[in-house]
Records
---
Amino acid sequence: MPLDNQNKINHILAVILRTFAGRQETVVLVYQSAGTYSYATVQAIFRPQTILDLQIPDQAGSPPRQQFDLLMVVPVSTNLVGVVYVADTTTASASAVAVATKYSVVEALPVGIRPSGTHIVAKLRRMR
């Protein structure tokens, strides 16, 4: 079914936002610009990557490897340009970010039914 009607597109976006409700948590995106850090909170869904069965080999025949630590799903309106890392805290301050668990962004792609995407899926690696 083609998305030829703006009402269809708006309905799809509304349904996707409703599916986010209740599964989101507040995280802080840390940006760096001209040597200064800025902090912004965003509602995101965090999903840890798990390897289901180590006995099942991957396509190359070797044991499966973990590609990333965490999958983050955010609305498509979220700006990830210039993000240094993601902090798992609800407070957007330097002191709160300093003690929080931090994740670096490996890859962030817009995905969804629209050509421009309906949400962004970012693969994160935990900073140790």
---
Amino acid sequence: MRTVNEQTARTPWRSVAHDRSMYSEDGFTLIELIIVVAVVPMIIGAISLALISVLSLQGGVSNGISDSADAQVVSANFQKDVESAEMITTQPSSTPQCGTGTQLLGLEWNQQGTVYENIVSYVKVDNGSTSSLVRQYCTNGSTTPTSTSTVSSDIPQSQTQSAPVVITPANINASAGAEWTSTVGITGVTFATTAPASGYSYTLTAVPEATSTGTSQLAALSTTCGFATPGTGTYASTLCFVDLSPYDDAPVPCPGSPGYQAMTAGIDGTPFTLSFCIEVSSVTSKGSQITGPVAAPVPYGTINGTTTTGGFNGVSAVSLPTYTDPPESEAFLGNNGFYTGVPGNPALYTEVEGSTTTIQVIDIKVLDAVGNPATGWGLVTGDAESTDTGESITWTSDEPLSLIPNSPTSAIGNACAAPVSPDGLTGVGTTTVECAATVHSDKTGTVMLQAPAPTTLTVTMVGAGLQAVFLGLLLPGAA
């Protein structure tokens, strides 16, 4: 049986309209809407600002990571190359140079004859508004790279060879800025730069192994420095004479010094080595240049050993004594029991009568067994023939030249007679000494000079006939 609520039945529409419990009152008030409209833009703005900041930092972070990675690549190559180096330069353009570009650092090692087997040049290459650091590697004396790699893609365009690479000590830094220089004695090679894209700065420092081992200089001996027969001279046991036999028309060149020949002499029975670069020029009495090889057998003097070439540019390396012609004139050195028995060919002898010869010796060094500079030594030089009428020899050094007496009772015998000895000997105790003569005589002595640890020596020989000089070393502690 169906029943109906009487109230509803009587007034159905009125009841429904007034029964508010049947409808929801959910929604936003005016105040809520005002708050939402005001706050939401602020929140969205903050989020947008943060997002923009993150996106703008992404490039800087990426550049920073890239430049940091470049620094690691540069470090790995730089450390290895510097430790291997025997020669170094910071010339922007050097000879030789591996490849092309503005060179910031050049390195060489493993000398093979007249060239170095390995050459590395770090060069700056401009790429529009940016610059890269490129490592170029050459082998076997070639200047064409066998490999090229970009070790950093972000270095300043304004970076020059003097800014990023600094060599210590300062004297080697200055030398390397002008020419190829030995790495012996270097205590640090420092590369510093700031990457422009990120502002990331880094500094790298390495030390050549040649500094601590000395192998680069000690391994390349080209000759010896030998002693006279014991008892034949006051310094027979402490004065060695350099065998100049390697002087010829096929020299080992001196890096950075075109025309000079490199010589490194091991000193017999000692841990020391003497090294230097030598260059000779000669002119005839009429001023014509004397150039080219001197064929063996040489016109004057005797060469110990077998050789296919007798000398170069008008002089030859010959044995002692150079000249024997008593009673009119003869060389005193090597004769008459005076420093006899010297091995090799220690005299540079002119081969053209009446010629004028200039011998320049530079970069003179004496090193111990581990490549450290020796102290207390003296470079010795002197007349290895006879200076007679109209002839002279002049020695100039960067250190004062003192006389080594022939004996306790005779300083130079009758050498430098103008007209009597020692009238023709001048400048002893200064950096320039001359021996000149106005008479012809059989010699009873000779001039022998020594300079304490010089770096340069120039000898000028003026001959009416022939002239000769020698080079030697007074051992450390004996000078």
